[in-house]
């Protein structure tokens, strides 16, 4: 077999030049289009502290953080979200997240087994100041008072109304991409 190192280097140089040219031709927008806004949500259950990597202590609420020890593995994620929306409540607003059949089952199991404990909600979403970056934080840690059989979490998030709308919009886009959007096609 005959090997020509000079020929290889010429082809490699030409290929790398082509890659650089193609990469510089692309356009870049300063903000993602509305349909590309994505968000994540992770629901974790409160757990007893241990020395393993199965639990971690997280700060909830930015103004005066409350430390909650949670399981590191989430019970349910954005992959099971079917819709999200911001709803008006007495004196404010809440984030309402509905899950698909699998998420409903996982949420029901977790809330049935952990009554009296907290569930902590972590979310990543686009920054309002710079939509090209994301921010992530623990939004809430409500106490589980009853078994949730309808697959819906509703809580007051540690977020502004605008941030809550961005989260809902991003979760609805993820639901649509995953084929979890409501059958009637409504988005809230």
What are the salient characteristics of this protein?
188 residues, alpha+beta, Gyrase A, domain 2, 4-stranded antiparallel beta sheet, 3-stranded antiparallel beta sheet, 3 helices, disordered C terminus
Written account of the structure:
The structure is a single chain. This protein has 188 residues and is of the alpha+beta class. The protein has a single domain, classed as Gyrase A, domain 2, CATH 3.30.1360. It is 27% helix and 30% strand. It has three helices and nine strands; from the N terminus they run αββββββαβββα. It has helices at residues 5-25, 101-113, 161-177, and strands at residues 40-45, 55-60, 66-71, 76-77, 81-89, 92-99, 119-126, 134-140, 152-155. Strands 4-1-7-8 form a four-stranded antiparallel sheet. A three-stranded antiparallel sheet has the order 5-6-9. The protein has a two-stranded antiparallel sheet with strand order 2-3. The radius of gyration is 22 Å and the shape is globular. The protein starts with a helix and ends in an 11-residue tail after the last helix.
